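In this section we walk through a basic example: taking a raw amino acid sequence and producing a predicted 3D structure, encoded as discrete structure tokens. The instruction is simple. Fold the sequence below.
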Amino acid sequence: MNSFKRLRAVLAATALTVAVIAPAAANNVETFSDSSRLVAVGGSLTEIVYAMGEEKRLIARDSTSMFPPESEALPDVGYMRALSPEGLMSVDPSAILMLEGSGPPEALEVLRKASVEMVTVPEMFDRAGILAKIEAVGRALGTEEKADQLAEKVGADIDAAEKAVAAVTERKRVLFILSMQGGRILASGHGTAADGIIAMAGGVNAVEGYEGYKPLTDEAVQAARPDVVLMMDRVGDHSAANDALFSHAAMVGTPAAQNHAVVRMDGAYLLGFGPRTAGAIRDLAHALYGDAVSD
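The resulting token sequence is shown next.
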């Protein structure tokens, strides 16, 4: 019975009822028994698979996996936090490699009942977290030697990038804005990818006192006194042109608005915490400090 037929049987047996989600079942493993038909869920994991030269295993990826560019030719099974079992199982995977936070839990439970082997890779926003991801992917695919070589290279590159910003004495206060939809500023607190990359690039998160992302009042933005605004380079309702950004009531009077200081970077590159992170550190540090950062 192929994977899609197994899924249909599982859905029929469970009648699509949502129950209490059980702990990790037996098909959650550290090393796949068969990764010849691999689905990668999470952009950094897809990058790691390619960086290890194991892309021949990939049969599909999620919508956050857009690098390297050739990965976009793979079938897209949907957004990592809104997966559907039908979408995943339609490609008949032998294994699913997914980043922590993928879901929803109900979809993962259906996949467990369909007996698809899965590895969930922890997400941490620092050097150690990136190397742990690489090691976890290598262990899952049974390519530990390749993973060790990649981790050594990536670790050395990150060390060099962080060393380049070590001499900066005046650290800039950086406000990462995830969205300005509806005129409300949704900004990053601590414990996020944005918080992690700001620190690695020698900046200081201008927002304190909370974890994750949340809307800020105008008073909170002004109290944060950002020197620079950091945003993803994208268009649509979640973005804002420079004039709209700095004329916003919350921004008026801040050092960032006075100097029209905004940095925009590709989101997957900036926040991916994968093999390219050393480059993101360098690019962000140069945008913040210019020639004060050594190459």
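Looking at the output, two observations stand out. The first strand starts at residue 38 and ends at 41. The chain has two domains: 3-121, 173-292. In the next section we compare this with other chains.
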